[in-house]
Amino acid sequence: MERNEMDETKMNVKDVMQTLNITSKKDFDLVINYLASVLQSKNLGRESEKKDVLKFTDNRKPPSEREKNLYNINALGIHYDFIYNIWRSQLYPSLKAIDSPLASKLYDRFTDGAVFLSNIKKTAEKQLLPGEEARID
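Above: the chain sequence. Below: its structure as tokens.
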């Protein structure tokens, strides 16, 4: 905690103590010292957590091509699912209602695309080494 924050905190505590009618300087110092020690221990804990996070990220290897590929395949799958759901619920019924030849042609393409994407994803997952995961950073 910075010096200004500590001074402001002391002033706030002082106001509360005056409101509660705690007027003894000894009691005031006791409360301030206690709060300072609690706040300091919290800040030390946060610093320790930050160091642990940095330690973890500093030691982590960059992603392999396998991890990047699976990440990108997963992203493609999310987009494809969105497009496919719109196709199935809105576009296909509309095209079929007007007897468009596109309805059956696109239906086959979307269905085949889903199968191909699923196979590519399974293959990419099998290529990961132990401890690897889909990631780009």
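The chain is about 80% helix and 0% strand.
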